[in-house]
Amino acid sequence: CSSILNTTAIVQRYVRLDGAMAYEVVMNATNIDGSVVSHTIPHLLRTHKDTICRLTVVIDERKRTGRLQAAETKHDVVRTLDEIASVVGSTAINVVRLDYSQAKATMRRWFGNERVAARCAGGTPLLAFLFGMDQASAEYVLRTDCDMIYFDASPCGWLTDGRRLLDDYSDIYFVSPYLGPPGGSDSNGVTAEKGETGLRLSHAFSTRCFLYKRSKLESLLPLVRAMHPFLKRVQYCAQGRSGERALEESIAMTLKARGTY
What we know:
Elements: E1 2-5, E2 23-29, H1 34-47, E3 52-59, H2 77-88, E4 93-97, H3 103-111, H4 127-134, E5 140-144, H5 158-168, E6 174-177, E7 199-201, E8 209-213, H6 214-218, H7 230-238, H8 247-257
Parallel strand pairs: 1-6, 2-3, 2-5, 3-4
Antiparallel strand pairs: 1-7, 5-8
Helix pairs in contact: 1-2, 3-4
């Protein structure tokens, strides 16, 4: 299952971890995201400065498809990332361009099927997400969208709390902070908080942000391939779009198939 930590305020102190317990962050970006990451990445590096060992940003330079193609821009996101690195003094920002020549190998590893499309019908990434996750080398990895801002009320940091959950519960594969603004209503599709663990179990999986343990995630592979119905796929094909559903639906279906969701 996936679990959500109820974290609703900015944490004021940090716990320094040794290299074995550091966390790696992976995110994806395109040229449309340049103005966004100029705010979110410095914030992430500042609030998680003592826990993140590396931030990997996978850049997809191909034109977007589906409902996202109208949002294209010529903004140079790589230059923005270089500027961020120079300002914050970080040598831990790893910029990787998405290598489409690795598409078949990546899909074969994650789905057991090399014919999975690079993007879902709506245009959100499949290949970029998975290729990015394959770049991680740390055991504990935070996969996050590049527009996320984190608030954390835990005295030791939500990543540390999440790591303990991943280690202590065999049926928890993903942990994320409680999504929404601080003090927001309980409208994120989650159950009431469980007093014993402080967990809120989610009714839906989201790829917006999730902490996972690499060795544990490996046990879920291959993922279930989520496809639209046949007639819908035909319609999308005529529009030059794939018939794939979003990655979060594949992960949700995989968890359900394993009886852990």
